[in-house]
Automatic annotation (TrEMBL):
Cross-referenced SMART domains: PKS_KR (SM00822)
Gene3D superfamilies: NAD(P)-binding Rossmann-like Domain (3.40.50.720)
Keyword Transmembrane helix listed: no
Every Ketoreductase domain range: 2-183
Protein family per UniProt: Belongs to the short-chain dehydrogenases/reductases (SDR) family.
Keywords: Oxidoreductase
Organism: Mycolicibacterium agri
Identification of the protein by name: Short-chain dehydrogenase/reductase
Pfam families linked to this entry: adh_short
Gene Ontology MF annotations: oxidoreductase activity
InterPro entries assigned to the protein according to its UniProt record, in alphabetical order: KR_dom, NAD(P)-bd_dom_sf, SDR_fam, SDR_oxidoreductase
Amino acid sequence: MSVWFITGASRGFGLAIAREALARGESVVATARNPQTVLDALPDAGDRLLAVALDVTDADAARAAADTAIERFGRIDVLVNNAGRGLLGAVEEVSDEEVREVFDINVFGLLSVTRAVLPHMRARRSGLVINLSSVGGIVVWPGWGAYAATKFAVEALSEAMTHELAPLGIRAVAIEPGPFRTDFLAGSSLQLAQTEIEDYADSGGAARQWAVDNNNAQEGDPVKAAKVIVDLADAPELPERIQLGTTAFNGVAAKLAQTAADQQRWRDVSLSTDYDLAPTN
C-alpha cells in the first residue's frame, strides 16, 4: 500500500487521481480548500481517505497538512502537485494582480507543498513527486501567455527535481495534459482577464471564445489520465515529462521539430558569438 498526498483533490484531475488510487487499495491524503467537498465526492472511501483543508499558498498550512498525513499514515510515498488555476488573456491585457494570483497558486503553491513534503521523503530516501504541468509548459498559444508562464516555471522546477532528488532515491516527473474534460475551462478554474483590447480580438479574443465553445467538450478523458498517472508509481523508469492526449503529444512534437529546424537554420549565427580561439603554435 502506498500513501498518496494530492493537492486540489476536490475536482478535476485531483479527484480522478484520488478515486483511482483508492480503487487500487492505496491510502490518500486529499487536500482542498474545503475538505468536505472531497468527502462528499468520495463517500465510500473509508479510513484510507484523509481529507485535509489546504490553501497551497499558505506555507504553514502546507507543513501542517504534511505533518497530519505523517501522523495518520506514517509516510508519504507519492506527492501529486495538482492544485492550480488558469488565466486567459493577451499578454498586454492581463494585469499584474491577475498574473501574480495565478503564479501564487501554480508556482509558489507548488513550491510550498513540495518543501513541506520532501523532508519526509528525504528521511526515508524514497518517494515520487508528480507535478501537473500542461502542454502549455512547452507550447504557447495566443491568450495563454501568463498561464503558460506558470507552467514553464513548473517544467523548470520539475526537471531540476528529477536531477536533485535522484541521488536521494526520490523520483520526479512532469505531466503535460492537453485539453481534458474537467472543469478547467469553467469560471471556477479559469479566470478571464478583465481588460479586453479590440486589437487582440483575433488572437486572445479567439482564445476566450474557444474556452467557451469547448468547456465540457474537451478531447481528453480524465479517468484514463488518472489511470496513467497512478500507474507511474510502479513504473521502473520515468521520463522527465510525459504528454497526455493527442493535442499535447502532437503539439509538443511540432514544437520540438520547429526548434530543431530553427537551430539548424540559425546554427552559424548562434556559434558565431563565442570568443575566437587563440591560435596555437
